[in-house]
Design a protein that fits this description.
Length: about 140
């Protein structure tokens, strides 16, 4: 009987270890899902999905002349392409940037060099806007909208 009790104890330990392992795997999956940045997708006429950052384009801001740098050039607008839920920017150098719409210029956002930063939340496809960069010096990088 002593042998049977030992085997039962080993079986309980093995079962418990399997449950713990399954719980840890589930927790790891949840944590991974929470830490991977969300990327919205849009479908073009070809039917192929395009990721938010995969649709990014380069920009080069026009230097200011006694005022802030702009992109696109002063007096011009760009439109939200609709591949992202937000307007995102990855600057080549740290810079404060804000989005200006037809109604107003919104608050300044600190964009660190080489890091995607949301500069305007909940954008609307085809909405017109331009960017202002705090200070007169030019700026370049990548924008995804």
């Amino acid at each position: 009987m002593h042998g049977d009790a030992h085997e039962q104890q080993e079986e309980v330990i093995i079962t418990t270890n399997r449950r713990v392992a399954a719980t840890l795997i589930s927790a790891a999956a949840v944590l991974t899902a929470l830490t991977v940045p969300a990327q919205a997708a849009s479908t073009h006429s070809s039917g192929a999905a395009v990721s938010c950052y995969g649709s990014a384009r380069s920009y080069s801001a026009e230097a200011g002349n006694g005022d802030n740098a702009h992109w696109p050039k002063r007096g011009q607008w760009t439109k939200v392409r609709g591949n992202c839920d937000d307007i995102n920017i990855k600057t080549n150098s740290r810079r404060s940037v804000r989005v200006c719409t037809h109604s107003k210029c919104h608050g300044w956002v600190d964009a660190k060099a080489g890091v995607w930063t949301v500069i305007f939340k909940n954008s609307t496809k085809n909405a017109e806007y331009y960017l202002q960069f705090n200070g007169a010096s030019t700026n370049s990088g990548t924008i995804a909208d």
